């Protein structure tokens, strides 16, 4: 799989990740890494897990969520 954003620039770069929102392939230069808190139902409330999970998104989805 190749990086979708690099292909738009007519470059051929191997993807190392997939956007968790839209599914586009991403190289290291186009991947945006952010922490994501993981919650789980626990009895009548919810539990938060530590450490945080990783969330990788492309530039378009990263900007849309900001």
What report would you give on this structure?
It comes from Streptomyces bathyalis. It holds the Pfam family DUF2180. This is DUF2180 family protein. InterPro entries: UCP037465_Znf (IPR017211). The chain has 66 residues and is α+β, with helices and mostly antiparallel strands. The protein has one domain (4-65). The strands form two sheets. It has a two-stranded antiparallel ribbon with strand order 1-2. It has a two-stranded antiparallel ribbon with strand order 3-4. Strand 3 (32-42) and strand 4 form a beta hairpin. The chain is built from two helices and four strands; from the N terminus they run αββββα. It is elongated and about 50 Å long.
Mean pLDDT level: 90
The end-to-end distance, rounded to whole angstroms, is 27 Å
Unreliable stretches covering 5 or more consecutive residues? none
Major β-sheet profile: 2 strands, antiparallel
Number of beta-strand segments: 4
Structural class: alpha+beta
The percent range for strand residues is 35-45%
Strand order of the largest sheet: 1-2
Radius of gyration over alpha carbons?
15 Å
Helix content: 10-25%
**Apparent shape:** elongated
The number of helical runs is 2
């Amino acid at each position: 799989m190749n990086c979708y954003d690099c292909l738009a620039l007519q470059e051929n770069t191997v993807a190392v990740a997939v956007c968790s929102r839209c599914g586009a392939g991403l190289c290291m230069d186009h991947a945006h890494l952010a922490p994501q808190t993981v919650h789980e139902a626990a009895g009548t409330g919810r539990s938060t897990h530590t450490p945080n999970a990783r969330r990788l998104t492309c530039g378009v989805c990263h900007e849309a969520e900001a």
